[in-house]
Design goal:
Structural class: alpha/beta
CATH superfamily of the largest domain: Thiolase/Chalcone synthase
Radius of gyration: 20 Å
Low-confidence stretches: none
Helix content: 25-40%
Mean pLDDT: 97
Number of domains: 2
Number of helices: 14
Shape: globular
Strand content: 15-25%
Length: 408
């Protein structure tokens, strides 16, 4: 490593809560953001969809509008709005709002899986359902997958490198990794990284149901009787910073990113293959300089689907072997649902908080052990004393990203 990478800010919004502190409080109390959802597109009962989901009831934009004006979110899709709220919180905590570093020495690398689902659905609904012959002129700027990164750059005045990474559920894991590498390479002093998603729409809901990945009940990571994932929405942002730069300006350092590893299964568009996960974890540990014997908290991808959890558990056992007895596995999707493009970011954020505060959140909805998922699970909130975190993100298409972080 050419430089140490500090975490100096965090922001989050999801169906569990808005804001890092409310999110942590709900998580550690064992609360769930998953609630019954019943909606229909365009108030048309022919386009009804219902089931459990971790949706955002109302987004509080008061602080954002007080800073940037009432129209700051006037022409953005919900996924960009979630990214904006989470990023504002992270930047405010980092003390970087209006800082001179934003002009040239700050990068934005943001993860998004599918982009503006709401805008896309409204656009095509207008054409096919209402038989319109034109669409809103801002349709593409709202639903393009890079919209959130562009909006963040304009909102914050960031004139350095800004781009989106789209690798399904690994998007924000890859974004964090690339932001870290940009800082190591000296291409920036600050990197605004993370990811977000707003996938709870009629078309998206039916698409995920068609894949047969959704649970009709609850997300039960690594549990016997698990039957699928739960759709979630929201965003999470972390501010990464060159350690020397952060210390020089007196920033509070919340944690340290030590390394990352990525891989591709090159196997199947939906089915995972454990070899890719094993490679990504081993690469991340090697990059971080952390021996496999080091006791650590493992933030799992933990979707609650039959094959994914089985494959991830096997991969974890293959990497850690006998040393796994000193580790602990958490799976926060059971609380906030699957944020897809934002999943890796919110899970890393919550893992870093777990290290810092010495508490591991409980995996919810557990029905009993599955012999094929035999890993040490946090089935209740408990005190911990780990210095290291390994956070997994394994996506459709076999795209894998793993981050290693450290308590400071």
């Amino acid at each position: 490593m050419t430089s140490r990478i500090a975490i100096t800010g965090m922001g989050a919004v999801s169906g569990l809560a808005q804001g890092v502190e409310p999110t942590w409080k709900a998580l550690i109390a064992g609360e769930s953001g998953v609630r019954p959802l019943s909606r229909c597109y365009g108030d048309n009962p022919a386009y009804a969809y219902q089931g459990p989901a971790a949706f955002i009831e109302k987004l509080d934009t008061t602080a954002l509008e007080a800073k940037y004006g009432s129209k700051v979110l006037a022409h953005v899709d919900p996924f960009s709005a979630y990214a904006s709220v989470a990023t504002y919180e992270a930047m405010e905590q980092a003390g970087l709002l209006d800082h001179p570093v934003l002009a040239d020495r700050t990068a934005i690398v943001y993860g998004v899986g599918s982009g503006g689902n709401t805008t896309m659905e409204d656009t095509y609904g207008r054409l096919f359902d209402k038989k319109a012959t034109s669409v809103h002129p801002l349709s593409i700027p709202k639903y393009m997958v890079s919209a959130a990164a562009s909006h963040l750059s304009m909102m914050l005045g960031v004139r350095g490198v800004a781009f989106t990474i789209a690798s399904a559920c690994a998007s924000s894991g890859h974004a964090i990794s690339e932001g870290m590498h940009m800082l190591r390479a000296g291409r920036a002093d600050v990197a605004i990284v993370g990811g977000g998603e707003a996938p709870i729409t009629y078309g998206s809901w039916l698409s995920w149901r068609a894949v047969k990945a959704m649970s009709p009940t609850a997300c039960r990571p690594f549990s016997a009787g698990r039957d699928g994932m739960i759709l979630g929405e929201g965003a999470a942002t972390l501010i990464l910073e060159n350690w020397v730069h952060a210390e020089a300006r007196g920033a509070e350092i919340l944690g340290e990113v030590l390394g990352s590893g990525s891989s591709s299964d090159a196997f199947h568009i939906t089915q995972p293959q454990g070899e890719g996960a094993v490679k990504a974890m081993r690469t991340a540990l090697a990059d971080a300089g952390v021996p496999v014997e080091t006791p650590m908290l493992i933030s799992s991808h933990g979707t609650g689907t039959g094959l994914n959890d089985k494959t991830e558990a096997q991969a974890i056992r293959a990497v850690f072997g006998d040393a796994l007895k000193d580790d602990l596995v958490i799976a926060t999707k059971s609380s906030h649902g699957h944020l897809f493009g934002g999943a890796g970011a919110i899970e890393l954020l919550l893992g870093v908080l777990s290290l810092k505060r010495g508490m591991a959140p409980a995996i919810l909805n557990y029905l009993g052990p599955d012999p094929e998922c035999e890993v040490p699970l946090a089935l209740e909130a408990k005190a911990i004393d780990y210095d290291h975190l390994l956070s997994n993100s394994f996506a459709f298409g076999g795209l894998n990203s793993v981050i290693v972080a450290k308590r400071v």
